Amino acid sequence: MQAFFVGSLxxxxxxxxxxxxxxxxxxxxxxxxxxxxxxxxxxPFILLNHLLSDAGGVALVGRALKAPVGKILRxxxxxxxxxxxxxxxxxxxxxSLIAAQYRGGSIEKKQAERLLAFAANVSPLFLLSAVALxxxxxxxxxxxxLMVNYGTNLLLTLTVCRFFPLKTPAAGTGAAKGTAAMRxxxxxxxxxxxxRTMVLIGAVVMAFFILIALADRVGLFRIIAAVFSLxxxxxxxxxxxxxxxLEITAGAWAVCGAAEGRLCFCLLSAVFAWGGxxxxxxxxxxxxxxxxxxxxxFRYKIIQGATAFVVSLWxxxxxxxxxxxxxxxxxxxxxxxxSEGAPLWTGFYPHLAHTSxxxxxxxxxxxxxxxxxxxxxAKKIIRxxxxxxxxx
Length: 392
What we know:
Mean pLDDT: 76
Number of helices: 18
Oligomer: single chain
Distance between the termini: 22 Å
Largest sheet: none
Radius of gyration: 21 Å
Order of helices and strands: HHHHHHHHHHHHHHHHHH
């Protein structure tokens, strides 16, 4: 495994040297997306959740909702606050709270591993503003996407807890361990941890943008289309779906450039319900000091993605159809036209080609570290899946 990991890094480094313009463009677009879209839509929720957690909100909510959460979800009361954080701020905030509660002994291992999946959502502000208005320029599509994403997650959560309950009893609320004490939260500490979380998100997103760009540059998606004899439109749809499986923002843009109407909505619902390997890498980073595994998370999210796709077939098209004057992204704008030697996203932010070479060099250095971090996270994910398979 280590030899494969080192070899993959070496190959990736060669690609960085051979096609630096592709890496530069993808890294710049990832950073721009992070700064203009993800930070405004996620940072307020992340900061608020950290402040509430520091103020003792987890234990207070745990005491108040111990009975209903224990009866319905077979989980301790602290799970209520974690679920609320997952539905408001999304990942990796929920994973950070789960890891903290697990280290403190408030929740058990199996409970924590289930909560990783139950509380893994896309932030509502991200869906309604960043995706619907910023990326897709279609305000109608936001509420239906939110309804499908949250509805399927809640449905699967109740189904799992009802028909596959944990054999271990629900843990206490943690009050006996002193976690319920109210204290004035440190604003500077909460800001520091919130910014740290945002930097983690930005680094992972940029790393996956680079991986998608390199896959485009070496012709991986064209090879898949040739192997399965796909038409140009079908190949674009497959490419968008695969991009969404890696990183949901890039996937959302690519899907809308390749599909339209109900197919576009169904694929978007499946992509956001799945969450992408980018979100899994963020969760894995938050769990680095624990023995929690992500096997259940992957099984759950795969099922949720398929469920979201099926549910979306029944959503009236009038709910999400764009206005008549909306200009949807085209496949050429998303992929740079698939022209030979053209880096990914050149049609997305063409002015990046005129940026200072020093900025490009700095981006390449940062990209190298981000790629290493992403691959290390992937290695941990593969180990978790293999360990879960052996346990069964």
